[in-house]
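Hi R.,

Here's the chain you asked about this morning:
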Amino acid sequence: MTTLSPARRLGTGPVTRPRVPARLGLLLLGGFALLAGLDGALVLLGLAAPVDSLRLAEVHGPLMVFGFVGTVVTLERAVAVRRPWAYLAPGLLGAGGIALVSPLPVVVGQIALVGGSAMLLVAYAAIWRRQSSVATAVQVVGALMGLMATALWWRGLGVPQLAPLLILYLVLTIAGERLELSRLSPSVDQRAEHWLFGIGLGLAAGAVVALVLPVAGYPLLGLGLLALVGWLSRHDVATRTVRSAGLPRYMACCLLAGYVWLVVVGGIWLVQGPVYAGPAYDAMMHAVFLGFVMSMIMAHAPTILPAVLRRPLPYRPVMYVPAALLHVSLLARVLLGDAYGHPALVQWGGVLNIVAVLLFVAVAVASVLRGTR
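And the predicted structure, written out as tokens:
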């Protein structure tokens, strides 16, 4: 029996890979969105920022979710698809991030984000044709949440109302990735995979209900997110590798710390219900996007960046420093500043959050330039 090559399983013709400098250019678009988003965070905190722009504050959420994280995620997917058209997804998301902070009308950036989110689904279709799996299906549900979020934002719905869609876009994407890696775990079988897919569908249904019936939808989201954390705590290999050493232990520490912040978000949804402003909203958004998503980025960077740039990002113990600073400052911001109404702690925590992110970027760049020992 003849085994089809990856190129033929994805379509006809030879596989063409963009050169590494082109990938680096797309990654730099995400880096630009990160810096612009952090600038907007300073504005939202009421502090002096390098660029004091109200527009940066207004587009802060979508800029970080799609312009930064979305560009990095779709770039990784494009590398996996190994076809030139797949790079339209990170290209559109990166360009959309630039448009959001440029003098162009905001709608230009919104349309680019919709296009990039749609192309991500096309990339997943190619991956599905090559090898269908529950892990890919979970990520597809997350991508659908992202497409809904960009389309509804383009049509005028506010970011606070779209928060569950924005959150599930990244949470389900990461959960699908963890399922791929957790197949090494003896506890992961077909039943466990189907449970995760069911939880993902339940969360998606809760997000849709929350758009029209927030009082009913948010408790469903809270229960679903807590169920997801329960699944990850039971099956993720991080619960085992945390007892190892070196890179596996570092990744596991970042992952498990991120899961704790998901519990915070699920609790807010379950107890508080709909939150669109105020301390609970600040705690919810930053617990998930800093405590969970950024921690996941710190964990996976040593494995993702080499695949994208073909340059090693060696693990170094100093990577614990920005990770620890991120979580400690977020604890001060959320559990002391937001929970007890201390604006100064919210500001100081926010500033240290930014320092932690920038410090990790500096450590990663230095580690790449220094190379392997």
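The chain has a mean pLDDT of 91.

Let me know if you need anything else.
M.
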